[in-house]
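pinging the channel bc i need a second pair of eyes. not urgent but kinda urgent?? the chain im working w is below, pasted from the shared doc
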Amino acid sequence: MILNKETIYKKDLDNRKIYVKREFDAPVEKVWRAWTEPGLLDQWWAPRPWKAITMSMDFKNGGRWFYYMEGPDGSKHYCSADYTAIVPNKSYEALDAFCDEKGNINTAFPRMQWKVEFKKVNGATQVEVEISFDSVESLNKIVEMGFEEGFAMAHNNLDELLAK
């Protein structure tokens, strides 16, 4: 049963948060794997024509995902996510950041605290993401960089992957 294929965003400027909701036509376990296994993440995380490439991933409390997104011109943007809480097939939390090729945090860009929850809804999976920022300016900077469009495009990639 295909539900809402639109990525829905809600900004809460008073609390410096962005809420994202998206439903996927697959069981929770399959969607969870796509968000937490590097071989699957790399297939959908970056909006096309960009590609996501995992350098390393240790998906556990205290672990890190270190990756880059490569553009069609060969440019690379490095990122990391430090996992702070994981409840298998239910939720995970991570502190996300842009960084250099060695994993050193780039303080010119905002860090974001992500909380990602997976819920069974009518035979499909609803993913709810809460992203917290240190300031409204940081939130606006990420939005201005194209976060909403890019994340929605990546979700469409995930739809394709889950349909395989």
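so The chain has a mean pLDDT of 95. and Residues 147-163 form the longest helix (17 residues). — does that match what u expected or am i reading it wrong
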